[in-house]
Design a protein that fits this description.
alpha/beta, Rossmann fold, 5 strands
Length: about 160
């Protein structure tokens, strides 16, 4: 795991109470990565974690109820890099990216969260190898899943004890 990425994620998550949203479609190969990571984090971290599937907009009420300082969205994103690449995409960059193929644009959801919930939002984007119809993720993405899970558990549990 890239030390710089870990440092960026850690700095972002220190901004307040954390909510994590896992976004993706488990029937479209590597697009499932956000969902798989959110499922893996359940019960391992003190942050509220939502498995949003393809419709994160359905969780706006639950997010608002949590009153988070930061919302971290985990999703497969076309970063134009090699499969398994990971990037923390913060607010300034999010607006310019066509991030997702999900029902509602992540840009609209992020705008809602920033305005209505008054939270800082970032996307932990993971470059997929393939998002074609298939169950299970590629070997490259499976490896990254464990790295991201370990990183987030370490950061979020350190935050709890700080």
């Amino acid at each position: 795991m890239n030390y710089n990425l870990r440092s960026q994620v850690e700095k972002f998550l220190k901004k307040g109470k954390v909510v994590v949203l896992g976004v993706g479609n488990t029937l479209r190969g590597d697009d499932a990565i956000g969902v798989l990571i959110s499922r893996a984090l359940q019960g391992k971290v003190s942050a509220k974690v939502f498995d949003c599937g393809e419709a994160p907009e359905n969780f706006t009420g639950a997010i608002r109820k949590e009153k988070p300082g930061v919302v971290l969205i985990i999703d497969a994103v076309d970063l134009q890099e090699k499969p398994g690449s990971i990037k923390l995409i913060e607010q300034e960059e999010i607006i310019n990216l066509g991030l997702t193929t999900h029902n509602m644009s992540l840009g609209l959801l992020i705008g809602f969260i920033e305005k209505e919930v008054r939270s800082n939002v970032a996307v932990l984007g993971i470059q997929p190898l393939s998002t074609t119809f298939s169950e299970g993720v590629s070997r490259e993405i499976s490896h990254v899943k464990q790295e991201v899970e370990n990183m987030l558990v370490s950061i979020l549990e350190g935050k709890r004890h700080a």
